[in-house]
Design goal:
By secondary structure, the protein is an alpha/beta fold. It has two domains: 72 residues, Ribosomal protein L30/S12 (60s Ribosomal Protein L30, Chain: A, 2-Layer Sandwich), CATH 3.30.1330; 163 residues, Alpha/beta knot, CATH 3.40.1280. The chain is built from nine helices and eleven strands. The strands form two sheets. It has a seven-stranded parallel β-sheet with strand order 7-6-5-10-8-11-9, sandwiched between helices. The chain has a four-stranded mixed β-sheet with strand order 1-4-2-3. α1 packs parallel to α2 and α5 packs parallel to α9. It is elongated. The two termini are 39 Å apart.
Length: 249
Amino acid sequence: MSEMYIYGIHPVEELLRRSGSAVTEVVVAGDLSDNQFSEIAAEVRSAQIPVRRASDEELDRIADGGNHQRIAAGVSSFPYRHLGEVLTELPDDGHRCILALAQVQDPGNLGAILRSGAALDVDAVIIPKHRAAQMTPAVVRASAGMAFHLPLVQVTNLSRALRTLKDEGYWVVGTVADDAQPMWTMDWELNAAIVMGGEHQGMRPGVEKECDFRLTIPMTSGTESLNVAAATAITLYDRRRSLADSGNS
């Protein structure tokens, strides 16, 4: 992909802290020695990243009208991780959690999901390479900078990735609208690969076939299904609550 720019003080701080080696330059309107940029300046000095001064107008263009707070960082490509590499890094505590997103296409939803994942003990997130939202500045902003707290794995075949996880001792837990066990009956004392369906078509049959458990969020009669970002937050919170109740949080 072509170079993209992450903008805003907190997102740039998180990018530099988590993936500084991917940053090609930092662009600032004014002086990087300003107090509000102190953490960014320290990371830039440590990693010896080039700094370029720009006008507010240029940063307005870079941020496409977003609130850039006079700072942006360029990355030649987002630092996606390989699934095998991530699996070797995770602690073997019996309660690992990987979130697999099946064709979530809205950048705002992806950003909100990454934010929930960072807050609720997710170890990594998997997204398909095709027909799904990818990492963009809009996703980073929607995540409130939390997009860099979690390893983000990009795969060409989600079903195959789920089979790999099953071979590594994970149980695949799919969330569906109906004909499934209520969320709160799930025993979360296992290594979980939680699959969340896309906004429009949910999970494709090949992905749903890999699920060992099928869960639903019971809702008041006559109400519509939840937005995928809200459903993800509820699912992750239920898992964390359940593990806390059993003394495994």
